[in-house]
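Technical annex, item 7. During the second reporting period the consortium partners agreed on a shared format for inverse folding records so that results from different sites could be compared directly. Each record opens with the tokenized structure and is followed by the designed sequence. A conforming record, contributed by the partner at site C, is shown below for reference.
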């Protein structure tokens, strides 16, 4: 993604391996955006797991790659341990437990683990394994980025010149290593010269729309309006919104989608107002083991995220946490909801736009066969 840093425009990923030998992983610390650009260095797998759990890095495709990098760190750590595989397996479970809803994390970790088992069965030494796992995790990151670009190329055709596009949460480069999922078609349409305007839901409680999506669009001079979550229905009712594109954290085999809380109501309102509603996601976001959305686990996070808001104090030029409710308030904080497939016009993937359950089954089957 293109960002403005120290007066220069640079092209950067959301996460990458900074030091191959030491296994140091570097990422944009998303907790500080849009106020400051801060980089977080993870020196070991436990720090990577902490970064995922505490929203230093986030977004389903992005934490999938973070999980792959974490396994690479675990392999380096385990090289001189007698319980080599046991150590790696233990760290894999820690990584998987950080965010239970986004399936990319488990899918990609399992893919790397399967690769490790096969390499060891083929007689590869532990020292050689480090190099091969590095190549594997980097190939996964490259695959995810290529999938994002393909989603952009395919999805841009859905956006017409002059369209007003509504999106929710952050499904941009910050959530998907580079380019993004829902923001990929928007970026590609913009690069093509289409005059579009993006309506960005603020997305409580973490405000990923206000903090992250608006920042990404600002970095690339893509016109946008930031709106409150509750305003999106009005804009759809008034006929201002032409198309809705969102990301996904897990997709069941019947097409039901788990995404940031608030997605479901957007899909229902879009359907009521005859506005096309699309989900953009790579095939690693599909869960072959989950038949329908009611089987997807929904992550519940800390009440603090509802009771407090973190913002920038212009007077002190510093970040400040402020309580916005009674500290005795009882809080429910599910961070995802389920959108049934019947409300979705299509799922934009690197394999094309999937519009039926048969499309989903074939695309996932072909993807897994090529991956294996």
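Designed sequence (site C submission):
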């Amino acid at each position: 993604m293109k960002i403005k840093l120290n007066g220069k425009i640079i092209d950067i990923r959301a996460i990458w391996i900074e030091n191959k030998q030491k296994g140091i992983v570097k990422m944009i610390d998303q907790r500080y955006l849009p106020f400051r650009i801060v980089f977080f260095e993870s020196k070991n797998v436990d720090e990577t797991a902490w970064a995922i759990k505490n929203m230093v890095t986030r977004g389903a495709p992005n934490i999938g790659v973070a999980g792959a990098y974490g396994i690479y760190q675990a392999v380096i750590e385990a090289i001189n341990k007698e319980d080599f595989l046991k150590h790696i397996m233990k760290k894999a479970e820690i990584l998987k437990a950080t965010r239970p809803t986004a399936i990319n994390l488990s899918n990609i970790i399992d893919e790397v683990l399967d690769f490790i088992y096969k390499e060891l069965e083929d007689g590869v030494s532990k020292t050689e394994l480090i190099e091969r796992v590095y190549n594997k995790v980097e190939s996964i990151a490259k695959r995810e980025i290529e999938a994002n670009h393909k989603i952009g190329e395919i999805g841009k055709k859905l956006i017409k010149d002059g369209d007003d596009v509504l999106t929710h949460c952050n499904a941009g480069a910050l959530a998907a290593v580079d380019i993004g999922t829902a923001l990929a078609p928007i970026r590609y349409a913009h690069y093509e010269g289409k005059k579009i305007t993006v309506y960005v839901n603020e997305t409580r409680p973490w405000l990923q729309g206000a903090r992250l999506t608006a920042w990404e669009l600002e970095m690339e001079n893509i016109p946008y309006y930031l709106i409150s979550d509750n305003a999106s229905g009005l804009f759809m009712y008034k006929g201002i919104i032409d198309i809705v594109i969102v990301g996904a954290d897990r997709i069941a085999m019947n097409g039901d989608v788990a995404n940031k809380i608030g997605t479901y109501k957007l899909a229902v309102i879009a359907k009521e107002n005859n506005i096309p509603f699309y989900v953009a996601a790579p095939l690693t976001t599909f869960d072959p083991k989950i038949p329908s959305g009611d089987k997807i686990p929904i992550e519940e996070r800390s009440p603090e995220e509802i009771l407090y808001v973190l913002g920038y104090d212009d007077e002190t030029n510093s970040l400040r946490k402020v309580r916005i409710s009674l500290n005795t308030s009882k809080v429910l904080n599910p961070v995802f909801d389920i959108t049934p497939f019947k409300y979705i016009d299509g799922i934009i993937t690197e394999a094309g736009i999937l519009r039926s359950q048969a499309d989903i089954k074939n695309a996932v089957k072909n993807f897994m066969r090529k991956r294996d």
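The chain has twelve helices and 17 strands. The first helix runs from residue 45 to 53. All partners now use this format for quarterly exchanges.
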